[in-house]
Hints:
Elements: H1 11-14, E1 16-21, E2 24-30, H2 45-60, E3 65-74, E4 83-94, E5 97-106, E6 109-120
Antiparallel strand pairs: 1-2, 2-4, 3-6, 4-5, 5-6
Amino acid sequence: MEIITHQGIEQRLCGTPRMVDNHTSIVELVTTGDMVADGSGLIHGGFIFGLADYAAMIAVNHPNVVLGAADVKFLKPVKVGQAVVAEARVKELQDKKLYVSVSVQRAGEEVFQGLFTCFILRRHVLAGDEG
């Protein structure tokens, strides 16, 4: 399936799509030194969140999808050099609001889980923006 949203994403920072089909996506991120938060090699949680958010957006796969809210849990730390894989599934659709469940795993162990509330807008979120 062709990805029609978030086409400007830097996949080196947010992950590489491995599968997108029928309101489901799988995205893989190989962590790098650019993502490290401290001297121990801990990956900053924002990169894991970014991976999960990107997976949710392409699971919805609409050009005007935006994130409205997220309820997330960071379960385990991720270290530099480790690969993590996000699996996102649209769980519920209410008109233009979608609830997307995302699980991020490292070598089969869950490190992050979240429920993302996404909205499909009639037009791009910046359409008509003067700023």
